């Protein structure tokens, strides 16, 4: 794929990524459509991005802003173990008097942490935890700090 000069995504990169997604998922499609769950980043909301999705039979499901920790599968059960495992590996390097993490040090440590934490079991748990597979609305609602109440009306005079 491509990268941007500042490391952030943009409309051009989003389209390139969508072409990549299309190429590598269409041969595994059961039926004519695929579902792509996205965040609300502006590059995913462009007319070109949405038109390309329609052209490629990709259905977009946009999760609400500031909810990825509840709804985005990788945030739910994969990134936390990855962060913890990587931190453990870096702490081990620090105990061995490594004071600077170079690219040469980072990449092997990250690869090891990734392989130990991004597992089939964690990925499946992430979809369960996000209430996606199997579909379970309570998996998300039970994590909200919201109390649903029926409003009380004062009697009319």
From TrEMBL:
Pfam families (UniProt xref): DDE_1
A Gene Ontology molecular function term of the record: DNA binding
InterPro entries named in the record: CenT-Element_Derived, DDE_SF_endonuclease_dom, RNaseH_sf
Limits of the DDE-1 domain: 3-127
Cellular component terms (Gene Ontology): nucleus
Lineage: superkingdom: Eukaryota
Name of the protein: DDE-1 domain-containing protein
Organism (species): Exserohilum turcicum (strain 28A)
Phylogenetic placement of the source organism: Eukaryota, Fungi, Dikarya, Ascomycota, Pezizomycotina
């Amino acid at each position: 794929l491509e990268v941007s000069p500042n490391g952030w995504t943009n409309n051009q990169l989003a389209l390139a990524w969508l072409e990549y997604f299309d190429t590598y998922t269409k041969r595994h499609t059961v039926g004519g459509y695929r579902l792509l769950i996205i965040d609300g980043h502006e590059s995913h909301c462009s007319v070109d991005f949405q038109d390309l999705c329609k052209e490629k039979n990709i259905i977009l499901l946009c999760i609400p802003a500031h909810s990825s920790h509840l709804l985005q599968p990788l945030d739910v059960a994969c990134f936390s173990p990855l962060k913890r495992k990587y931190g453990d590996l870096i702490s081990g390097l620090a105990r061995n008097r490594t004071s600077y993490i170079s690219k040469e040090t980072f990449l092997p440590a990250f690869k090891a942490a990734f392989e130990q934490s991004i597992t089939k079991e964690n990925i499946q748990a992430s979809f369960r935890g996000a209430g996606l597979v199997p579909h379970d609305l309570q998996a998300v609602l039970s994590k909200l700090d919201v109390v649903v109440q029926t409003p009380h009306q004062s009697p009319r005079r």
